[in-house]
Amino acid sequence: MSDTAQSQHSAGVHHLTVDELCAGQRLDNYLIRELKGVPKTRLYRALRKGEIRVNKGRVKADYRLAEGDIVRIPPLRRPSPSEPAPVPRYWAEQIGERLIYEDENLLVINKPSGIAVHGGSGLSFGLIESLRQLRPDDRYLELVHRLDRDTSGLIMIARRPAMLRELHRQLREDKLDKRYLALVAGKWPKSLRVVEAPLEKNVLQSGERMVRVSREGKRSITEFAILERFANATLIEAKPITGRTHQIRVHARHAGFPLLGDAKYSDENTAAVCRELGLQRLFLHARSLCIVLPEQQSLTLEAPLDQDLETILSNLRK
Predict the structure, then answer these.
(1) pTM over 0.90
(2) CATH placement of domain 89-162
(3) CATH: 3.40.50.360, 3.30.2350.10, 3.90.1170.40, 1.10.357.10. Which one for 174-317?
């Protein structure tokens, strides 16, 4: 049991007292961290049955904890203690070298392409699990937002619950400015500055998650600007106004200009351009970020393009 909670025991039942550091956290995320090794399915079942309670009452998984809450934990079987699989050395070095910003409340990482932001779906680790392992003295590390596995660039990790809540507020109220670089197939027209098309998540029979434009989907808006034109491609800046899954990728394809290197949402013509260029990954990079820190200071950060993407642009300019 971590030192973020005080524990009392009675007849196999545990009572955890929520401290200041965990205040504001979702109950399910708190339980996953405190009860390492207990399967998530077992935790959610215990919540549904009312075996896990807060202040003697039934609560849902998304309940936000408050300092001083008493969480009742029933006896739950755990596998024998074992250390988590170590982060592969390659990823440990990559993550360690790509820290862009750090203060007592926030980390900002220039995420490499190829690593998911969190484990699951067959992945034993992701960026957040790796950071928790590489920084054991950090008692609280939570993702503020997400990036697709193949997208590189700036991602924020909160070190305090208050920072997580504040950045989520800025995201909800469109106070947080995030901009991406993307290389699309074809000649993006100057007149196309905004794509507004509702997006809906869809799971295929294979289990693959896809997103499509649908009248039943959620309102989604992306602003686009041309940065540089090439013979068969355009370098654009994308600013998502809403934050939907795969939004930039699906909006670009909907406009008729799929992102190069996008195996999920492109076509054979786009794939042929990628082969010609030698592009072997998604050309999408979270380049810049502007937020307001708790002291009302504006913080603007930029992450340079990875060398493999810079090389593609250099070759196009030739």
Answers:
(1) no
(2) 3.30.2350.10
(3) 3.30.2350.10
